[in-house]
Structure formats: C-alpha cells, structure tokens
Write a structure and sequence with these properties.
By secondary structure, the chain is α/β, with parallel strands linked by helices. The chain folds into 2 domains: 192 residues, Alpha-Beta Complex (2-enoyl-CoA Hydratase, Chain A, domain 1), CATH 3.90.226.10; 47 residues, Orthogonal Bundle (Lyase 2-enoyl-coa Hydratase, Chain  A, domain 2). Helices cover 48% and strands 16% of the residues. α6 packs across α7 and α10 packs antiparallel against α11. It is globular and about 60 Å long. The mean pLDDT is 97. It binds hexanoyl-coenzyme A (HXC). The site of hexanoyl-coenzyme A has 20 residues, from α2, β6 and α5.
C-alpha cells in the first residue's frame, strides 16, 4: 500500500493515513486503499475494533484539490468517488478516529464516518470548501448538522472557519481531547476496551445507533427491539449473564 501504514495490536487494527507531504490530502487512490483495508479488517476475526489516524500535523486536510481542480460535473459523476465512501458505512466493527492538527473538508467528513473520536489539543476541525467555490460532498452538510445542530453547522459551513478541539468537545463533535503526545495511545486504549466487549453486541449497537441517525424513532425502536431479541441467540449473552451471576469476568467468544 502506498498511502497507508497498517499494524495490529492484539484485537485492534490500526490504520495510519500516509501522505504526509500534502497533509494527508485524500486522493481517490488513498480512499481506495483505505476502504479495501477496512474491508479486510472487517473480514479478519482477530480484529474487533479499528483505529484510524493520520499524524500530529494533519489527520487530513481534505480531498486532494490538485486532483479535483480540472474536473467537470460529468467526469465527477462518472468517477463516482463517493461509492468508495459509502462502502465505509458497511463496516460493522467500531472505528475510532484519532485526530490531530488539520481535520478539514473531506478530512472532517472522514472523521464523521467514524464511531468515536479522540482529538489532540492541537486539532482544528473545519469545512472550508466554500473558500474553494464548492461545498462538502461526502456528507459534510448532513452529518455535521445532525451531530452539532443547524446553527453551529451553518457557521462552520458558511464561514469555512475551523473550530478548536475544545469547541469540538463542547459541541459534542469529539469524545475526548487530550495532549498531543497521548491522542493516539488514548484512542488505542479505547479501542482495546471496546475490543474486549462481546463483538456481536457491539455490532448490533453500532447498527442501531446508525439507524437512529437515519430514520424515525418508531422505526429505530423496532430495529432496536429485534436486535435486542436476536442477541439472546448468542453464546456471549449466556456467558455475560452467567459470569455476572457467578461474580467473575466474562469470556466473550464472539459467538
Ligand atoms: C492537495 C494539499 C491540500 C489539499 C494541503 N495540501 N492541503 N494538497 N489537497 N486538500 C498541500 C499543499 O499544497 C502543500 O503542498 C502541502 O500540502 C503543505 O500545505 P501548506 O499549505 O504549505 O501548509 P500550511 O501553510 O501549513 O497550511 C495548511 C492548510 C492549507 C491551512 C491546511 O494547506 C490548506 O488550506 N489546505 C487546503 C484545505 C482545504 O481547503 N480543504 C478542503 C478541500 S476540498 P506543496 O507541494 O506546496 O508543499 C474537500 C472536498 C471534500 O475536502 C469533498 C468530498 C471528498
């Protein structure tokens, strides 16, 4: 892989975006590698949670402007780059973003495709597309509005100005803000914590929360109820409840 560095720590898969010279600008080949690697980790039973990170200076400064500059509407439509992004939504394992520095444009949209977010104190999050004469195309107007509300999203999207890590925490856009030297280790610790949970339940919870973002309360409650019932078919439910009653730690098998 040209644009990623990948490693595994026990049950945690770690993907680092690696185009440091251009602040991890997300060109189409990078996104192709990223989605293929996420899909490989999805199939790998030894991985139960995934950390997605960049480097201290930039998680990603957006889609690759050089790659887009000469495109026209039809070439963009035919390329259909967002089909790759859509595949990311099919990953059922929890994805924890570890972000620092620039998280701009497509970088912010990529971060919002993740399930939990640990940010360094130096993080700046923004959707500056308006300054380029365009707008977000990978969910920025939709996901940001759902996550932080219309008024805050409008300001970020219409001014293009980034917000600080502290503001992002206050807005509920990130889970934690930590000193820059700890953001990756904190995200990996969080991933280990989640990887120790029963994976079938984690998968159902992730899906159920995604549905909460996309549908009505009644439909979401119906999905949740069926998923709850279904978990009583898992060995991990029997083990989890038995371990509680026997006052011992549970040994979850993902069955
Ligand atoms: C291509 C980029 C880039 C980008 C930075 N670079 N961002 N190349 N696409 N998005 C390159 C620069 O050209 C430069 O290359 C190198 O990275 C270092 O960047 P500098 O600008 O020299 O660094 P600095 O002065 O520190 O400024 C950092 C910055 C600025 C504030 C982040 O680079 C910037 O404004 N970048 C663009 C941010 C942006 O507009 N993102 C939204 C993109 S549109 P050289 O070769 O000169 O060293 C988008 C649409 C999403 O994301 C649609 C869905 C996918």
């Amino acid at each position: 892989m040209e644009f990623l560095r990948v490693r595994q720590e026990e049950a945690v898969g770690i993907i680092e975006l690696y185009r440091p010279k251009v602040l991890n600008a997300l060109n189409i080949p990078l996104m192709g590698e990223l989605v293929s690697e996420l899909e490989r980790m999805e199939r790998d039973d030894t991985i139960r949670a995934i950390v997605l990170t960049g480097n201290e200076r930039a998680f990603a400064a957006g889609a690759d402007i050089q790659e887009m500059a000469e495109e026209d509407a039809i070439s963009m439509l035919v390329k259909d780059q967002f089909a790759q992004w859509d595949r990311m939504n099919q990953i059922t394992k929890p994805i924890i973003a570890a972000v620092s520095g620039y998280v701009l444009g497509g970088g912010c949209e990529l971060m919002m495709h993740c399930d939990l977010i640990v940010a360094s104190e130096t993080t700046q999050i923004g959707q500056p597309e308006i300054n380029l004469g365009v707008m977000p195309g990978a969910g920025g107007t939709q996901r940001l509005t759902k996550l932080i509300g219309k008024i805050r999203a409008m300001e970020m999207l219409l001014t293009g100005e980034p917000i600080s890590a502290t503001e992002a925490l206050h807005f509920g856009l990130v889970n934690r803000v930590v000193p820059v030297e700890f953001y990756l280790s904190e995200a990996i610790d969080l991933a280990h914590n989640i990887a120790a949970k029963p994976p079938v339940a984690a998968r159902m919870i992730k899906k159920s929360v995604q549905i909460a973002q996309d549908t009505t309360l009644a439909e979401g409650l119906s999905y949740e109820r069926n998923a709850f019932y279904l978990l009583f078919a898992s060995a991990d439910q029997k083990e989890g409840m038995k371990a509680f009653m026997e006052k011992r730690p549970a040994d979850f098998k993902g069955k």
